[in-house]
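Hi all, long-time lurker, first post. I run a small reading group and we've been trying to get comfortable going from sequence to structure in the token notation. Rather than ask abstract questions, I figured I'd post a concrete chain and ask someone more experienced to write out its structure so we can walk through it together at our next meeting. Sequence below, copied exactly:
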Amino acid sequence: MVDFAYTASAVLMTVLVLVVVGAVLRFGRWQSYVVGEAESVGERWNRVKSSPATWTAVFLLLSLGFGGLAVLWVSDTSLPGAGMFGVALAALGALVLGGYLFVGVYNAARSRGRPAAWGLFEAVVMVGFAAVVAIMVNLVV
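-- Answer (accepted) --
Happy to help. Here is the structure in token form:
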């Protein structure tokens, strides 16, 4: 069990070092900064969400997360809380499915010309309806 703590600590510190190195490399070119038009948060968000690299990174993180939890769930590990891996896997799956449903309904409403508040309303109602259906199925089965 001590080995797991050391391994987790080493992985976490490696990720932290990579983030710091990436930030330094990204922001290290301040000497050649040229004043231009400031990009709004909405424009920056649209650029990030339309980037294939963003979608690829999210897909890889979700795949590795689901795969790692599934392997830990089916293996006979002696980690503390190992019995909760199945619950975590189900919760993560429900979160991804609910998020996909929410974003899809919101974007569909916005693409039909509805205002943002109306799209948000439709998305929340749909996710709530899906939760009620899931509870009904759980009670019946």
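A couple of things your group might point at:
The radius of gyration is 21 Å.
Residues 1-29 form one domain.
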